[in-house]
Amino acid sequence: MHPEVKPDPAAPAPCVLGIETSCDETAVAIYRRGSGLLAHALFSQADLHAEFGGVVPELASRDHVRKLLPLLDTALRQAGLAPSQLDAIAYTAGPGLVGALLVGAATAVALGRSLQRPVVGVHHLEAHLLAPRLERQPPAYPFLALLVSGGHTMLVRVAGLGRYSVLGETLDDAAGEAFDKTARLLELPHASGAALAALAQQGDPQRYPLPRPLLGQQRLDFSFSGLKTAVRLTVEREAAQPGGAWRADLAASFQQAVVDVLVAKVRAALHASGLTRLVVAGGVGANVALRAALRAEAGREGWQLYYPRIEFCTDNGAMVALAGAERIAEAAPGAVIGVRARWPLSTLAPPAARPRD
Amino acid sequence: MTTLLALDTATDNCSVALWQAGQVLSRCELAPRRHGELLLPMVDAVLAEAQLGLGACDAIAFGCGPGSFTGLRIAAAVTQGLAFGADLPVLPVSDLAAMAEGAHAADDAPTAVGALLDARLEEVYAGWYVWQEGRMQPVLADALVAPAALQAPNAPPGGHWWGVGPGWAVYPEALAPLHGVVRPGRTDLLPEARHLLPQALAQWRAGVRLPAASALPVYLRDAVAWRS
User: Fold this and answer.
1) Which of A103, A218, B43, B193, CA to CA, is 20 to 30 A from A112?
2) Does residue B84 share a domain with residue B9?
3) What 3-state class would DSSP assign to A24?
4) Ranges in chain A annotated CATH 3.30.420.40
């Protein structure tokens, strides 16, 4: 009843739908190897959660179930495709918010059932790591990946698809989380990391000597909670002072501390691994100061830098469709709707054809 | 010859039913937290038993709530996915109506039913239904209410209300004042897909044809986040 996906050199590559609902972005995209990205549509719930000071899982799930099909419609129209022209369906199966993941998984598996197409559950972080492969000059394996977002901060040696070793990761807050929390401490009207970065551009990064946690250590792990505490203490001290210039200076000093740590750990990881290609993925990868610092360092050290385009640094459907296309061998008729809130990246393996159910 | 598929995951019950010209095939399992694993295989099973493809159905009915938020989203998302892919319309059915139909389908066939589900946080989901024109019809809109504030509508002449559903068992003291007008019925009665069918058929015959994207939960509880 379900056609198997067999590689046929004469046939065009399969057209893969990607569905992402792991956190507060609902996103859909269609990708075909060779043709590239055919469509992508996204709705960000950032405004919905902003007034609550963080992502509210129940609200996120409620919004995904409202937005997903309209976005699918949009993507199909962009690509000029009928649903029956999709060859496989990829969805983010984890890690992420369980209730949010379930919406994408349930829709994807049911859609696969009705279209009689195979489905493949994608690892959210693998999708981020692969995102630069959507660009014109994709990085060759092996490479080092710096994954920096609101949920993750890690350095990963990527030897090939599904061959990952985590060299270091955050022991507490993610870098993006530190940005968000600092934005809230500074009471920015739009308490987001992006707003903090915008404010930092007007400030003096040298004014406040903030800690660079774990900077001098050999280990490649990160820690940002101490930095956050230092920011809070500075805010409490400065809030009594007249004038507001200190806010921009503190934002800039905070950002500089994060950038210094990220760049130092990247340098150490590249030296230790002997790699020269660096992929930067995740929302913080869009940060202008980080990009400038990495560019300067790459020029001195002779690294090659790879980023996804800015809109694919944050969560999106394109990276999920791409990851699904790369793991097409694992796509199978699915009837079980399963997600994984926790799913260590290091447990992934190269794609292998799964027994059909 | 109308063919309807129905599915429900609003409570610990995971259930699917297929109506084909008066014949009903169904599956139901009390399976907390296993809906994602069981639901689509149940759909496959009833379709296989009827020797039908999904495309042979006219519409997909689903229990739209109230109930467990995650359960409601599984039913809605699966309905969306199935209906979008097979280009079928959807029919949302109240889970309290399904409970009233379930009560009426039992031997004593009560004609006035107060269906209560535990909504947690000291509240219940309440639906009051009476038998009219061949199905259970709401006397009041389904509502989220504190047990102590729950009021029974006027019973039909000469009759009384039957209270069904776990809500009655969870708050016996707060609901005690209603015992004069509400007789205790099955408190273990939960919604089931086969009891969505009378309501779904009525919608279908009335010309209801909603697009797949309209398969959305009706939570009744909308205060789920608080400003920090």
Assistant:
1) B193
2) yes
3) coil
4) 15-130+313-347, 141-307
Give A357's pLDDT tier (boundaries 50, 70, 90): very low
The secondary structure of A292-329 as a DSSP string is: HHHHHHHHHHT-EEE---GGGTSS-SHHHHHHHHHTGG
What pLDDT does residue A8 have?
Answer: 61
Instruction: Phi first, then psi: give them for residue A258, nearest 5 degrees.
Output: -65, -45
The label of the residue with tokens 């995209």 reads A29
Q: Which residues of B touch A (CB under 8 A)?
A: 35-37, 39-41, 43-44, 54, 69-70, 73-74, 76-87, 212-213, 216-217, 219, 224-228
- For residue B142 the two structure tokens come to 């389904």
Q: What is the ipTM of this complex?
A: 0.97
Contact B40 A70 (CB under 8 A): no
Strand-pair category, A15-20 with A88-94: parallel
Does 2.40.50.430 match the CATH number of domain A15-130+313-347? no
Please give the tally of structural domains in chain B.
2
pLDDT in tens, A224-241: 989 999 999 999 999 887
Q: What angle do CA B49, B54, B60 make, to 5 degrees?
A: 105
Whole-number pLDDT of residue A1: 41
Find the domain containing B150 and state its range: 96-184
